[in-house]
Amino acid sequence: xxxxxxxxxxxxxxxxxxxxxxxxxLSVPKSGGPRNERGEYSMAPFFASVDTAIMGRKxxxxxxxxxxxxxxxxxxxxxxxxxxxxxGERDGLVFVNQTPAALIRxxxxxxxxxxxxxxxxxxxxxxxxxxxVDELHLGIVxxxxxxxxxxxxxxxxxxxxxxVENKTYSRGLxxxxxxxxxPKPKRKP
Length: 189
Hints:
Number of helices: 4
Shape: globular
CATH topology: Dihydrofolate Reductase, subunit A
Structural class: alpha/beta
């Protein structure tokens, strides 16, 4: 079964962006920057495991702003949850306004790689509320923002995860990978 994987970078205090939506604290300087250079860290193995991405409209807007009005070309199918845009495929994106559960049911019927839940926080909350997140991949950057857009806004029930991998990289980045621990179904006598 295809897994839904929430993969995001965040600050030590749990923010995925500044209050204005900026994610500059996540970027890797090209030449020996003092604070966030993470050396050997690579997302290539993760990208090889997914072929579908899901994001919210605000995350799309932030990506477009960072990319100067366009997103990188990719063979990955990209879904965007939006209440403002009508459903349908445009500009290499598939806009949807169905429930997360309906979309995931549809995607899991297809034989393919895992599904990347990019975010943001409100969409992550909706997926957690519907218990659709199978794995968490968190890149924690050694910076405290003090305020911003939280990865996990309140409003979903407790969800238990098991740590399956942790790695520390140069300059203090920590990469954590968790798997969802679901209660085993009770057997009927």
